[in-house]
From TrEMBL:
Pfam families: TK. Substrate binds at residues 170-173, 178. Zn(2+) binds at residues 145, 147, 182, 185. GO terms for cellular component: cytosol. It comes from the Bacteria. The keyword Protein biosynthesis does not apply. ATP binds at residues 9-16, 87-90. InterPro entries: P-loop_NTPase, Thymidine_kinase, Thymidine_kinase_CS. This is Thymidine kinase. The lineage of its organism: Bacteria, Pseudomonadati, Pseudomonadota, Alphaproteobacteria, Rhodobacterales. Keywords: ATP-binding, Cytoplasm, DNA synthesis, Kinase, Metal-binding, Nucleotide-binding, Transferase, Zinc. The active site is at 88 (proton acceptor).
Length: 196
């Protein structure tokens, strides 16, 4: 039975690596997959999903204006596809998550989404909030803070290296911009020593 999956974490947990490995496993068994990634994230090149460990694949891209049900339906009209993989799923809109749910239900194809849960301010991304509400199955991909505890938060660093407290929710970046931390160390970086 097809399901909508949400694999979430903070930065540098290996989400893209896991996505690429899962897609490879399907292809190794002779099954086609369809990869999508956010158009605005060009760190690995336009239309490319890449991992920090050096593996990558070409992918179709999406932005907020795309109807993902129609995109998936068009892909399926060209031949069999065993699974849809979506990287940078935090950039999906709420409407697009509903479109993915429709694809699972009506087109009977599994959709596996990989993305961040929260932004540098500790707030849910709209796409992640919708996935947390609608996904059939969820899995946390874990990484660790410098103290050894599970990292569940991320800080965005400014040019001077200090943690930013304000700014646009979306700013594409990697290790030069973001650091994954446990909640306690995130609170310390954000200057919050009191319970919110």
């Amino acid at each position: 039975m097809a399901k909508l999956y949400f694999n979430y974490s903070t930065m540098n947990a290996g989400k893209s690596t896991i996505l690429l490995q899962a897609s490879h496993n399907y292809r190794e068994r002779g099954m086609e997959t369809f990869l999508l990634t956010a158009r605005l994230d060009t760190r690995a090149g336009n239309g490319r999903i890449a991992s920090r460990i050096g593996i990558g694949e070409n992918a179709e891209t999406f932005d907020a204006s795309d109807d993902l049900f129609a995109v998936i339906e068009a892909r399926l009209s060209h031949g069999p596809c065993a699974c849809i993989f979506i990287d940078e799923a935090q950039f999906l809109t709420k409407q697009q998550v509903w479109q993915l749910a429709r694809a699972v239900d009506d087109l009977k194809i599994p959709v596996m989404c990989y993305g961040l849960r929260v932004d540098f301010r500790g707030e849910l991304f709209p796409g992640s909030a919708a996935l947390l509400a609608l996904a059939d199955e969820m899995r946390e991909v874990r990484t660790i803070c410098h103290c050894g505890k599970k990292a569940s938060m991320v800080v965005r660093r400014g040019p001077d290296g200090t943690a930013l407290r304000e700014g646009a929710q979306v700013q594409v970046g990697g290790n030069e911009t973001y650091v994954s931390l446990c909640r306690r160390h995130w609170r310390k970086e954000m200057g919050d020593t009191q319970t919110r």
